Amino acid sequence: MAPATEPRVxxxxxxxWSALGDMAMATAVFEDxxxxxxxxxxxxxxxxxxxxLFEHDxxxxxVWALDVRARGQRLSQSLAWxxxxxAGRYDMVIDLQRSDHxxxxxxxxxxxxxxxxxxxxxxxxxxxxxxxxxxRSGAHALATMRxxxxxxxxxxxxxxPVFHPAPGRREATSALMQAHGLQAGxxxxxxxxxxxxxxxxxxxxxxxxxxxxxxxxxxxxxxALIGGPDEVALCxxxxxxRDYVIDLNGKLQLLDIPLLCAGACAVIGNDTGAAHFAAASxxxxxVLCGPTDPRRVKPIGPRVVALQARLDCINCYSPICAxxxxxxxxxxxxxxxxxxxxxxxEPPARWGEAPVQVFE
Length: 360
What we know:
CATH architecture of the largest domain: 3-Layer(aba) Sandwich
CATH superfamily of the largest domain: Glycogen Phosphorylase B
CATH class of the largest domain: Alpha Beta
């Protein structure tokens, strides 16, 4: 049933363009919107690179994508966006993209007519007529998006990402796991990569190799490696010739990640988009942070924790380390310490000790 504060909402446009991790978190917000308006026709506007994630998503009657930020085409694509939006005759628009670009597009929409009577966005102010309580840029993405829902009277109840993979992917992923001897409760998933432009976000191949060996030697776990196209060499280096480390790089689709992680004892990864997909599995996920702030980037979910060193130079967001002890923020998280904590059975709230702090 639609919230009493927003009657007769028949057509809704949700705007969310990027980034990959933020999009994963936004799927929880999509779920709350769909539950609050079960009879409405809901469209999603996103970027072409992300549209495939929602090809089989029953929450959206249509997913339309235009690359409004393409170099040399911004004006033409923005005009095409405006024409497409005006043709939708929406009653409500929910702008989850924190950008001046969407604010400008919505302002033009208001100026040219046919704009939705209900307009909510992360930024507040014109052209929005529903104002969120959280507007500061440093807040966690989920808290900011939930503030938009609050301005619309929509309850925020979903606390994990929600994806809908294509038909047959569950069976295909299961077959892949069986072929590599990945039995539920007997393996962990490692996500050793991160954006190539931000190498300091990576814990490092040597540390992941040591962690894998300790988890196997102590508990008999097998380790599944996942990564992107620019992490092929990294995954090969970690796997080496050890038969208990399974390199699945290039063998999975993004929406297969929650399916793979659903049977894992734990998932350990860096601050990267794949970790947000792993969080959708509901299994324990440990994210290693150094130059990025866990309070802003930690994936959502009740079983997700982030680890970070207790150093003055953390959260620098720099691609180049200025600390004389190079990469000290990530080196402080030692494989032996992490393996012991993962196997201890203790809740993460009790893990925190110098020099590592835990964010839940």
